[in-house]
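Annex B. Sample input.
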Amino acid sequence: MTTDDFRRNSDNFCYRHPDRQSFVLCQRCLRTICPECQTPAAVGVICPECMRDQQKSVSPAQRKAERRWSRPRAVTVADSRPIVTYAIIGVTLFFFLLQLIPGFGSTVTDALLLWAPYLYPGLTGTFEPWRLFTVLLVHDASSILHVGLNMLALWMIGRSLEPLLGRWRFITLYLLSGLGGSVAVALLGFSTPVVGASGAIYGLFGALLIVGRHIGANITGIAVILGINLVITFLPLVFGGAVRVSWQAHLGGLLVGLLVAFIYTRTRSARQRTLQIWLLAAVTAGLIGLLFVPALFPALVFG
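Annex B, continued. Sample output.
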């Protein structure tokens, strides 16, 4: 869809604020609403008009029961702040500080980093699948640039992407991208210990490209930044230098981020919520299935 086509389609803008783009629909009337017009409901959010209609339809008996059994709460406007983004940054920085504690930091790193053999009990006698995700929490403790650049990128992308997708979609995207990076490491860098959230960050880059293109935004700047990062990632391989970054995690996270964002943009209607969940479950199952490749076909992984 071209930018002009997008702007002419009123469904891509909040019906109460036509100058505001949005990615979220009212679960009752299915009209597009911006964060300011969203009111949390049992499932999803509803617009102010549907909220008034819902309040009018409440019977006196229901009001009495609510006063008796529920704590009175005022209806508030949905919080559009990127809370999940801030939470991820806070937790990640907390673990980084733990890594800096002398005599204890190395224990934290060793317990959470990703080393693919730990996923296969037949090789090490140890099965620690949580490392697929805990690797996102630990970074290279010898350089603050590693965690600093990752968290800066997360802060910059999350402020734009989380309000567009919603918190649950955003955290799902982050975790699945991180899982994609870990799976790629297991397939393409089996014997290499890995730390860092770069796989998930690259997934967010990919998602921002897809979502930005879908809403008609100018994605040239995003594409250039992503391209520069990819060049930096693969330069050591091209020139034979010491590899300090996991290009496998970057590539895996990016591909999964692109796929998850594509699912989001094609199942944005409330009527397609079940389909969206099933497709995300299929992506998760597919990634887990790929982890069986080293065990079933070791020649493909070990040469």
